[in-house]
Amino acid sequence: MRNGRMPSALLVLASVLTVTTVALDNGLMRTPPMGWLAWERFRCDIDCEQDPKNCISEKLFIDMADRLSEDGWRELGYVYVNIDDCWSSMERDKQGRLQPDPKRFPGGIQKLARYMHDRGLKLGIYGDMGTHTCGGYPGTPLDKIKIDAQTFADWEVDMLKFDGCYSNSIEQAQGYPLMSKALNATGRPIGYSCSWPAYQGGLPPKVNYTQLGEICNLWRNYGDIQDSWDSVMSIVDWFFENQDVLTPAAGPGRWNDPDMVIIII
Ligand SMILES: *[C@@H]1O[C@H](CO)[C@@H](O)[C@H](O)[C@H]1NC(C)=O
Ligand SMILES: *[C@@H]1O[C@H](CO)[C@@H](O)[C@H](O)[C@H]1NC(C)=O
């Protein structure tokens, strides 16, 4: 790429072997989704005054969209540009809707979605099944699921990563299926990535992969990747050890997600 380096990329290494299973019926992600996600490299850097190039702002996502669309990544299938945590304002608006931080996303999320669509890309956003996101921003507790799903659809978002900080296992068992229904009810096809299994140890009997395949397009099974080879290897080892459980769970529209891989170019 032009500046010499693609800081981090999301590449879903979902199993190649697929079996015939029922998938979430939104027509999306028949092949494993590919694109870019902000978290691994840019975390919750919100200091746009001191660090304007790396802070979580619309500029970062526009820059990445330009790289994906101008440097050949889109043609290879890297079409998702995904916002992670720390995008929102600390307060909901007067109608109770999530809203982006007004200084860092002055154009709003819909404008960013249109920027992606104009270039043949897709925009992903981040929410959290719980009272707060992992970074302490407003979460989506059970009573906010419908309004947040509708807000994302109104913004023309294409994918939701639904994290699981600040909720217990009972709330998660209710909230993840409810969000799936709420996204469907908006009428907009929105890819649904569930962090649920990662919060339940990733394995049966706590995790029901049959159910996950029916409600989510994609799920994080295991911990976050970190910026080290040890971290990459620990994830590879875990997927290797548990492949007999994980392989049958995957298929068109329903994928295991080992998290991003780090690509330095
Ligand atoms: C909602 O679910 C129905 C039934 O599974 C499916 O036919 C429809 O395409 C879904 N719509 C969206 C927007 O996901
Ligand atoms: C897992 O989920 C499926 C589909 O929702 C359900 O039919 C099945 O009973 C569940 N299995 C267990 C062990 O709870």
UniProtKB/TrEMBL annotation:
Domain of life: Eukaryota
SUPFAM superfamilies per UniProt: (Trans)glycosidases (SSF51445)
Protein's name according to its UniProt entry: Alpha-galactosidase
GO BP annotation list: glycoside catabolic process; oligosaccharide metabolic process
Keywords from the UniProt entry: Disulfide bond, Glycosidase, Hydrolase, Signal
Subunit details: Homodimer.
Protein source organism: Echeneis naucrates (Live sharksucker)
Any GO MF annotation of the entry: alpha-galactosidase activity
First and last residue of the signal peptide: 1-23
